[in-house]
Here is the input.
Amino acid sequence: MEWLRRVEAKWQELWKKHGVFKAEAAPGKPKFYITVPYPYTNAPLHIGHGRTYTVGDIIARYKRLRGFNVLFPMAFHITGTPILAISERIARGDEKEVKRYKEYVSKYVQDPAEIEKIIETFKDPLSLAVFFAERVHKDFDALGYSIDWRRRFHTGEDIYNAFVTWQFLKLREKGLIKRGDHIVTYCLLHRQPEGEDDIADADTNPVEILEFTAIKFKLVDEENTYLVAATLRPETLFGATNIWVNPEARYVVVEWGKEKIVVSEEALTKLQHQYVDKDIRVVKSVYGKELVGKQVYSPLGSKLLVLPAAFVDPDNATGIVYSEPSDAPYDYVALMELKRNPEKLREYGLDPSVVDEINPVKIIEVEGVEDHHAKVVVEEMGIVSQRDPRLIEATRRVYKEQYYKGVMKVDDPEFNGLPVSKAKELIREKLFRENSAFPFYELNRKAFCRSGGKIIVAKIRGQWFIDYSIPWWKNETREYVDKKLLIVPDKYKKEMLNAIDWLERRPCARRRGIGTKLPFDPDWIIESLSDSTIYMAFYTIVHIIRRYGIRAEQLKPMVFDYVFYGVGDPTEISSRTGIPVKALEDMRKEFTYWYPVDQRHTGIAHISNHLSFYVYHHVALFPPDKRPRMITLNELVIREGAKMSKSKGNVILLRDIAERYSADLFRLYAAGAANLDSVLDWREKEVSTVLDSLRRFVSLAKQAVEAKCSDQNPSLMVDKWFTSRVNRLLLEATNSLERVEVREYIQKAFYQVLSAIDYYRERVGEDKAICMVKNFLDKWVKVLNPVIPHVTEEIWEWMGGKGFLSTNSWPRIVPESINEEAEVLEDMVKDLIDDLKNVLNVVKPVKGHVYIIVASPWKREVIRMLIEGKSYKEVIKTMREKHGLAGREKEILLVIQQYRRSPDARLALTTAEKEYQVLVEAREYIERRIGLSVDILWEEEAREKNIPKADKAYPLKPGFYIE
RNA sequence: GCGGGGGUGCCCGAGCCAGGUCAAAGGGGCCGGGCUUAGGACCCGGUGGCGUAGGCCUGCGUGGGUUCAAAUCCCACCCCCCGCACCA
Here is the structure.
């Protein structure tokens, strides 16, 4: 391992020194442009990222060896909120965060004082981003990625902002950007929207926004004043029997436009954030118990009594609910409790007898449920208290059954007979229309931000969106993905198309974060997935921008119009921006040469977001010949069967690879241990067996390089087999790589070649095997260079190869180097040994000699005639006449029968003489394998000697007799 | 719930799209042997059941079906994983 790391460092240094991977536009020379999304640099990368980048690099290296001018660039993503949020947390002295980042930094820096200093700089988000960008860059180098680093940038740079500005102006021109209201999770502490990343435990316990229907119940004795009860099941309004309030909770009466409404205090805050434009003013504050005993009218006209219930949570929706005891377990249980304890009502000045008249009303039919659904479930579960947590489960059960199977059974002809799911939608719309209700947004659970701020649902006014639902755009994108874009593995195409269909309006800017200001509304910052959709175009020109020292202010939209579209006159643009004409032309040249992207490789997690935007934006902004050609994907990486996560502390960082493993080992494992479309399980045990194989490969190569091989004579059939086998594997490996089947490629080019060598060595002996390896070693290292570039460079050097192997060329493996006859014959030898062993296992008591009997040539002729379609009659006739088999027709028929049972075209590939020859050549080997002495006989010979089983000999399946 | 993927031998995992040559590649583990002072590494053999001759039986989530033939195709069911948006 030490040795590996030394060799790796050596070649990384040399590649860098000689600028081996710099890519320059070379019109006329075939190009290959491959990209992998730039990493977000808020932390060190782990082996999951490494898998993706490694696959990308393997392809880049392969294409380079195939003679393409390959561009493989990389940059760093720093825009958006996470880096900012981390930085703020560190500045605030958040202990957990500081600790985590100290750990990260300590991966790269030893001195504690130094670490302390670095953490201090992280209070500035840009320093944090740049620190990790630097490290990630080094980690990438340490893995041997063949990146052209001159094109490196980060997304916080002003030249990048200029580019994104151009992009958004274009999108706006095309009418793809809209403005409107937007519902978000919002932190009351920070007074800003906060998403899953900022909410405590949201990754494990998801936070969802629920849309309640807040229904207004007019108070009987008061003018224009309503109790607002919120529900997720407005269809149950038909069965409402009373209103529940929490007697201990505080409620407020507020002016709500021209009306007055009553909601809980907590609900008021939420309404203020959801109805920002509404004129809301508090009139007075009351306890819930003061509301008990009042009467209200339901929008459906019935008169309902307000009653107390402890289960009502003032911090959930409006803090008031209506009771529908037939279908709502909570309501049912609360009602029953009250009925058991009517005396309690006296506390509120109510006559206990009022509850006698309140009874569930059945409004929903579900097949198989006779009684009230809530009652059935509650009794079955044995729930008696409204504080029983199992009520949540009971509610879920009832709802699930009713939603799918329930049918409305109500007086109203408009709703009677409707399925519950349908009725729910209709009544909701109707209530909204009649101004009897309004939407109220609430979370599915209580949530707090990571600093403890309360999260509620708020409505953002004037949110900017990119509208992916615009028909021409969606259709063209869909069409393009469906017909033109190659997606590998194939099975992700459907998912991609689904994502394209599913995308609608998507917010594209936020009020905070690092990034580019929205050019037409600078209070907003372009959101970080939206600013990263066409940046591959930026790679083609960024090094020129730097070379000429062009400043961001000079990069006016007209510059990009020229570079990307060829629109405008360079001389004029030059005079208006101060950018030299030559620079403009160079950029134009680079862009037209490299674009489009030939292949983009990334993880499947990007399908429904980044990759969809990537194609959408290219369709919007670039003509068909500049749109992506291929997308390739890989699955994620887990470790020892478990998902890697910060909380479990089982994340392996790329940095650890460079320190504790080796680059080539990692590459071999990460790309070879699982298919792209399966999860890769990083298992230490397997990694170490891969290391063993890598070692074996190196020592084999070393032996081969050092071997003196003048007197070896590869004339045996098995030598031809070996040559053929190896060439076949290398050819198949090439084909696999061409299809981006990386695992297959590694299996063939590495493992299967190794095991072919093992076999061959066992068969013919060490020295000769090594010499045969020496013969094809140059081809072999070339084919393996994309996966294990360092080791193969080193071997190439031992071999005295000229220049860098990484810029050499792919070996030509001509189909003629494959000898099928030799392969068929060697398979025969293997099968024969297997059969012998099988029989020897059964027939334990053996004496010690084996006769191997080669089928007579006439048997093969029989088969040949059958393949040619000759009739049995003809075959028998020929045999009788030509081979004197009259009287032995039975044997002929046996051969015919066996052929018919398993017809095998390979039988025609060789002859009986070759069979005999190979067996003679392999005799010693067979003896060694079975531990018995062996004679090779022709069938006719054996017959003469009266050796049993002689007639069982069949072409490619010699008979044998164990004496 | 909607959408996508998947269930293979003790374990991991290929095969399935293009049905037969699949008792099912390759690892790992376990058992035995070689090498070695010993261990490790490496190499060889075994690892569903039965069988004194290369064979037979049972088998690829469950239950049906199509077919001369199904791990592979069709239907139903059960179970598992992933995504569901403003977050990179």
